[in-house]
Specification:
This protein is mainly β. Strands 6, 7, 8, 9, 10, 11, 12, 13, 14, 18 and 19 form an eleven-stranded mixed sheet that branches. A hairpin with a 5-residue loop joins strand 22 and strand 23. The N and C termini lie far apart (68 Å). Bound molecules: sulfanyl-(tricuprio-$l^{4}-sulfanyl)copper (K7E) and dinuclear copper ion. Dinuclear copper ion binds next to loops.
């Protein structure tokens, strides 16, 4: 490995040397922009031009970066608990992580996807998938917080998700792993008879963003990998790549790489809606969770949903087709015009580009090659616009600019290839320093790409930064794509394996940013709206502390009368009404996390004292010159003590 790395380093050095002499030549290596430093330099105090939302991979979170600087602004907790923000630890946020498997504090997130209006990112929400326990989360870009998480029933490994239709009518969820549907105790060897995949269409309410599983499409037991919606002329269709059409259930590395072609599945979701309206959807019973965070109560609630409507393609003619696609396709991307569908066959030697209009003609003329599981297979040539020849090795993902070019990541040959969509000709290639996975151009999977920058994200980490022990830094590279040739500008580290990302001009988001929550509108059942209303109440062995915080003290800050065996709930309200004045709260020995409470917000943390004594609590977030004075004590007495329950701040004992 070390040797391999140093060879790579030497190669890279040589490549730089060569590139000095022969600018942009194929073998020449990185075409580093001579003015890279000024192009990525955002002067102190100035803002970046774009936000980018990069999936946190196996961290289960999403990270927000500025472009072109690559500066990290925020990690938004989504599927994983986050003690920094109390996410998944406070009583108010815990329900967000409820699933049919119980409380799950983690997931594996792959794809971020911005909501769209007329096929263009609108800056309202960003969605992200949970790959492990199948889920989709919606993050509200007014607050940069997870507002909702819905579990996907009859699914396992929610990978081809949460890509969206042109007006975010739906976000989708295609199952990566086929399973018995519904789950039951069967032999794994009965894979091809007893297992199935599903493709879920999750409705998104236009105003509130609220998600609901509108319907699922039952499908043969393949692995559904990635997807993108049609747009413009192809609006109304959705395209999913699938591999393992061999239907292997063991040693897929070999057994699922047998066929020359797998499929892209084309789903006419408008037809599916008609079939649902006609009552063709069979009700399947399945428990799945829907968790929402209410910005007025500052509290999450979980509801358990019980049924889902499932369409069988055999009963729904004209709804689903397969297009053969070489070989073990991964990425499935639709160009800004909506006419071209690009498959990224990991093991393919070409990049196949399909034509939507040819596909429709092929369907009309019944140019089929038989069917699979009742789903007609369109003849490869009949739907093909053409193939990009010799693009590189291991094509994975494709994004688009606003000038008719596509950019495809090449995992094996570690490069990005720029090609002309109509002519299918490679016009440029840029080596990336690691095995590249997803790439992202702001708006690059929409109708209107902002084709200025390209972010290239690693799959396998390489030694681009100072070493950090056995695991090297995950990272991304930024390219300038405003000219004819791609030019490397910057490397920047990312969190978790970055997978996919989205980008959008900052001004579409900044103007809507929430600065505070109005205390007058706080409907948390445990809110304390004035320091005078602060109190401590006992209910059996439960003690509820209704506490306020304002620079730089707590009300109350001296509490006595707690007994061993009590369960104490601190319901803490931040009374500040100024932007950027959160306070934190932690009590010694709390077995969960701190809370970070925004102005006008109430949050609750549970504490079970373990021994007799006087324990401090304090503000964890530096909030004023007297932050260090923002502290208090809580006295814990023996179980049988008769210390009365008292609380005070200053001298006013109550
Ligand atoms: Cu290619 Cu999960 Cu979209 Cu990673 S996936 S790169
Ligand atoms: Cu409040 Cu520090």
């Amino acid at each position: 490995m070390k040797r391999f790395t140093s060879i790579l380093t030497i190669t890279a050095v040589l490549a730089v040397l060569f590139s000095l002499g022969s600018c942009g030549d194929k073998k020449s290596g990185p075409n580093i922009s001579e003015d890279a430093a000024t192009k990525v330099y955002v002067p102190a105090g100035k803002y970046d031009e774009f936000y980018s939302f990069i999936s946190g991979g196996f961290s289960g979170q999403m990270a927000v970066y500025g472009l072109p600087s690559g500066r990290l602004f925020r990690v938004i907790p989504v599927f994983s608990v986050d003690p920094e923000k109390g996410w998944g630890f406070t009583e108010e946020t815990k329900p967000m992580l409820n699933t049919s498997h119980g409380f799950i504090p983690w997931d594996d997130s792959h794809h971020s996807e911005l909501s769209m209006t007329d096929g263009v990112p609108d800056g309202k929400w960003v969605f992200i998938n949970g790959n492990n326990v199948p889920r989709i989360a919606r993050i509200d870009l007014k607050t940069f917080r997870t507002a909702e998480i819905i579990e996907i029933p009859n699914s396992a490994g929610n990978h081809s998700s949460p890509f969206t239709t042109e007006n975010s009518e739906y976000v989708v969820a295609g199952t990566r792993f086929s399973i018995p549907i519904k789950e039951k105790d069967v032999s794994i060897s009965q894979y091809s008879e007893k297992f199935n995949g599903t493709l879920s269409f999750v409705k998104v309410d236009k105003e509130s963003g609220k998600m609901s599983v509108a319907f699922q499409i039952m499908s043969p037991p393949f692995d559904y990998d990635l997807s993108h919606a049609g747009k413009g002329p192809s609006h109304g269709w959705f395209f999913f790549s699938c591999y393992n059409t061999e239907q292997a259930h063991t040693l897929l590395e070999v057994n699922a790489s047998q066929k020359d072609k797998d499929f892209i599945m084309a789903v006419n979701w408008k037809k599916a809606e008609e079939f649902i309206a006609q009552g063709k959807g069979k009700e399947y019973s399945s428990d799945y969770y829907h968790n929402t965070y209410d910005e007025n109560t500052h509290t999450a609630t979980s509801e358990i949903l019980k049924t889902v409507k499932v369409l069988d393609p055999a009963d729904c003619p004209g709804m689903v087709y397969y297009i053969p696609c070489p070989k073990s396709p991964h990425g499935c991307d639709v160009d800004p015009t909506g006419e071209y569908i690009v498959g990224g066959g990991k093991l393919a030697t070409v990049i196949p580009v399909f034509s939507f209009s040819k596909m429709l003609k092929a369907i009309e003329g019944k140019q089929f090659d038989g069917e699979v599981g009742g789903i007609p297979v369109i003849k490869y040539e009949a739907a093909l616009h053409g193939e990009v020849q010799k693009p590189g090795l291991g094509p994975l993902h494709t994004e688009f600019d606003d000038k008719g070019f596509a950019y495809t990541s090449m995992f094996v040959s570690s490069e990005v290839v720029k090609w002309d969509i109509k002519k299918l000709e490679v016009v440029d290639r840029a080596p990336s320093y690691y095995s590249v996975g997803h790439i992202m151009i702001p708006g690059g999977d929409s109708k209107k790409p902002w084709g200025k920058y390209l972010v290239v994200m690693n799959k396998i980490t390489k030694d681009r930064f100072l070493p950090t022990g056995p695991e090297l830094t995950q990272s991304a590279q930024l390219y300038d794509i405003s000219g004819e040739k791609m030019k490397l500008l910057l490397d920047f580290p990312t969190i978790g394996e970055p997978h996919y990302a989205q980008g959008i001009p900052a001004d579409l988001i900044v103007k809507n940013s929430v600065k505070i929550f109005k205390i007058s509108e706080n409907k948390n059942p445990y809110v304390t709206k004035s320091p005078n209303d602060a109190k401590v109440e006992r209910k059996g062995n439960e003690v509820h502390v209704y506490m306020t915080m304002i620079r730089s003290h707590f009300n109350p800050d001296n509490i006595e009368g707690i007994k061993l065996g009590d369960i104490v709930y601190f319901h803490v309200t931040n009374l500040e009404q100024d932007w950027d004045v959160p306070h934190g709260f932690a009590v010694m020995g709390n077995a969960n996390s701190e809370m970070l409470i925004m102005p006008g917000e109430t949050q609750t943390i549970k504490w079970e004292p373990k021994f007799v004594g006087v324990l401090p609590f304090y503000c964890t977030d530096f909030c004023s010159a007297l932050h260090q004075e923002m502290q208090g004590y809580i006295r814990v007495s023996p179980k049988d003590a008769n210390v009365p329950l008292t609380f005070k701040t200053g001298s006013d004992t109550k």
